[in-house]
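hiii, so i know i said id send this last week but things got crazy w the move. better late than never?? heres the sequnce for the chain we talked about at the cafe, plus the structure i predicted for it. fair warning i was half asleep when i ran it
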Amino acid sequence: MQNTLRPAGPARPSAAEANEAIRHLVETWDGEWPSEAYEFLLEEWAVASRAEELAAVQ
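okay and structure toks below
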């Protein structure tokens, strides 16, 4: 079973914030690729993107 990291508080990042975090990770990684952190950020971006899309159509 895979465990995913969740934010400590109720707030989640916006799609733009999650995207910026992904960019920062990609631009600054050194050594072994941080796959867990990358997957976590991708999930955060996907959730935020879906929420923003749903809000736009309502």
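btw The longest helix spans residues 35-57. thought thatd interest u
miss u guys!!
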